[in-house]
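Backbone Fold Data
Goal — fold tokens
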Amino acid sequence: MQQWFETPPGQYLLAWERAEFDRAVGDIFGYHALQLGLPELDTLAANRMPHKWLALGEPQSLAAAVKPALVTSYGALPFEENSLDLVVLPHSLELNVDPHATLREVERVLVPEGKVVICCLNPASLWGLRQKRAHLYRKLGFGELYLPDAGDYIGYRRLRDWLRLLSFEVESSTFGCWRPAMASEKWLSRYDWMDAVGERWWPIFGAVYFIVAAKRVRGVKLIGPPWRQAVARATAPVPLANRSHRSHRSGNLPQQ
């Protein structure tokens, strides 16, 4: 994956993702943020949280890290439950052998109302179709893959269903990179007009998609009669004023 990002389509993809990550995480507030994978890109650069971490699934990626990183399994993160405000997954699900376990772990470490930002390559795109055709050609003994052969690319609707099962609510989603699957920078530049046209006319067929979702924790509130009935209190009698004192004041003095 790291080598592919150095190619012209990889650089084109990273440039679009860098701007999209800055837009997505810039207004998410909290104290603790975590990025899983893709050390070539600092996805939290525009975020203002005081504590940020980068987690990598393999030590070979440490050389490309833009900040100090920890090596850990994405299915067993070294963070307490309900301790992170933001988790960013740039291509971390499709490059993971167990994306379900990764999402469950993200749900565990996020605080209620915490945000997760996910970026994945779109199999329902021109890039995804070329990758499927390349896999078919390879079975016949020829052809070359266009995208990295590092994992299973997850469809947009499929990922939304996974998030819904884990009580995440999708707040926004965007697509990008509509240029054809060209390998050279020259041909990619010739089709730059397709980004504006694709965003307007066929947005769901972009080569990459973004999802911003929030962890919802719904509480239970009991509504019913009170456990104890209010006890009526008797009103204490009010003593009258001293009658003799009133008689003195009225002039009725006792006889001698």
The chain has one domain: 4-215. The first strand starts at residue 32 and ends at 36. Confidence is low (pLDDT under 50) at residues 245-250.
